[in-house]
Amino acid sequence: MRARSRRVTPPVPVPAWLAVLAALGVLYLVIPLAGMGAAVPWGRFGELITGEASRDALWLSLRTCAAATVTDLLLGVPLAVVLSRSWRGVRLVRILVALPLSLPPVVAGLALLATFGRRGLVGQVLEGVWGVRVGFTTLAVVMAQVFVSLPFLVITLEAALRSRPSGLAETAASLGAGPTRVLRSVTLPLVAPALARGTALSLARCLGEFGATLTFAGSLQGVTRTLPLQIYLARETDSDNALALGALLVVVAAIVVAVTEWTPGRRSGPVSEGEQAAAEPAGPGPARSLPAAPVDLDGGLSARDWRMRLQIPAGQVLAVMGHNGSGKSTLAGIVAGRLRLDSGRLRIGDRLVDGEHTFVEARRRGVTMLGQDPHVFGHMSVLDNVAFPLRCRGVPRGRARQGAAEQLAAVGCAHLAGRRGSQLSGGQAARVALARALAFEPAVLVLDEPTAALDVEASSHVTRVLAARLAGAGTTTILVTHDVLEALELADAMIVLDHGRLVERGEPARLIARPASAFTARLAGLNIVDGPLVVGDDGLPGVAVGDRRLAAAQLPEGATLAAGDRVALVFAPEAVGLHAAPPSGSPRSALPGAVEAADEAGGLVSVRLGLDGGAVIRARVTTAAWAELGAPVGGRLWAVVKATQVRVVPLA
């Protein structure tokens, strides 16, 4: 059976009036060119453009335009990069760079003449001291062309640099790339179309430059008379020659601009997550050649009210959990070198990387950070992406690619080696980014919710790959996550943060099974009923629920709690028994309530019960037990919880 063709959603149509105005704009630009083309004596075209004066003007224009364009690139690319950053005075400099665009060319020529002419501020020094004359020379033609064309390149490139995807340069730096390599290998390739367009616009402007050249360089045949000047002079004596040269200039300019509109066709798009999962299973992966490093942190960031004392042994995978705003990403940023402590210190291995008088930048820490956006370099092949950190370390290309291939095989992506990074699905990109991070052999690997942006299938597969690779790599890892199952599957230890403080630490399974904080209990999907501590006549601690009491068997070991202190009582949904009437028996709590919802999955029914008094709890019973109860939504039931299955958690 033939595969169904992919349907592309048509774009939202533009308003008819807008299309009409756009068409008028195109006609206004095209009709004059067509009129000039109709007037050109094409039968004599070759003869007209090959006269001595025409040849000299054409050759001079080509030479000066080439020199001016190279100068534009040498000056314009650095200028655009600097102007794309934020610093004091950048807006003023942007205005000054754009100013030549609004100046009449004659004014530009006068400015150049007043500065570099024989009596100019700089020109008289150049000629008097070094004997160098600028005005009315071929050099003056190049300078005039650069003055009027440079802003086209700078503005086009700067706009692209400011709108490029964020985080890619930081990722490259964290993989060991220096500023020059980041610029050459990541930043400029990302804006290559804008660089090409800006270069073409500058070249086209050079080809058409007239007023500044005539004012500053004059019109000497073979020396300063470019093609536009020759056309202007020929217009008065030989209009056919002027039309032929004008048509030639239009054709050359059209070719220059048209080249920037050509882009090579893209290869096939990404394979589906199902295809990529079945294509090649993850392997054990290469072992580390560099030792993992421990982390010793004792410091704070007062602007975020964040303070932490934390030690991570070498090779440990530490899960970091907490509610939004608890300080998880701050911890990740501090270790990765994207944030700086304002008190205390941070050591990675035996090296102080952040202290009172010390701050080691991200690219020199040996720490790699992988977040929700994997920041795969879209312009590189997958193989070159993974080889990138090895090349930054000076590893020869062949060996780097061999090491990258081994890492790709370990995450099940060897079949994607030839694809571009921009052709990967979310799950593929996450696995490639992991392979690249492990190829770097970081002292510490920071994973900031690496699967949060993936769908369920891709997230499950990436988690399995992470488990296999982290277990085999022996890399010290900080895993920031909201997913309890991810923490249980990947981590050796877990910490829980709250309001910038560490509140719990231990093995993930133990913390989830016996949480010491309400937040950890919620993570585990447990029921939480909070309120002031009440001690009943039976001596059991509990909290009031309506006119009844939910009791626990005992207080936490070592806790000093008094009646009235706020506590949370925590218990699993499986610990709740549902009855049509209150039973009697061993110490337990019997609480009446109304059924708010019931959902069946896998042979079990999860029942949400709104207790009298306002608390809401969940119970999990078999479908047979639920059918026997026969309670509809809104029906009344009794929830029975044994005191021995209830834990008391102190609240701040």
From TrEMBL:
Residue stretches making up the ABC transmembrane type-1 domain: 58-260
Extent of Low complexity compositional bias: 273-287
UniProt GO cellular component terms: plasma membrane
A Pfam short name: ABC_tran
Cell compartment(s), UniProt: Cell membrane; Membrane
Positions of the ABC transporter domain: 290-524
Alphabetically ordered keywords of this record: ATP-binding, Membrane, Molybdenum, Nucleotide-binding, Transmembrane, Transmembrane helix, Transport
Keyword flag ATP-binding: yes
Alphabetized SUPFAM superfamilies for the sequence: MetI-like, MOP-like, P-loop containing nucleoside triphosphate hydrolases
MF terms in GO: ATP binding; ATP hydrolysis activity; molybdate ion transmembrane transporter activity
Record field: transmembrane: 12-40, 60-83, 95-116, 136-157, 242-262
Mop domain segment(s): 584-650
Disordered: annotated span: 265-294
Membrane topology value: Multi-pass membrane protein
Keyword flag Cytoplasm: no
Assigned protein family: Belongs to the binding-protein-dependent transport system permease family.
Protein name as it appears in the record: ModB_ABC: molybdate ABC transporter, permease protein
The organism's taxonomic lineage, starting at the top: Bacteria, Bacillati, Actinomycetota, Actinomycetes, Propionibacteriales
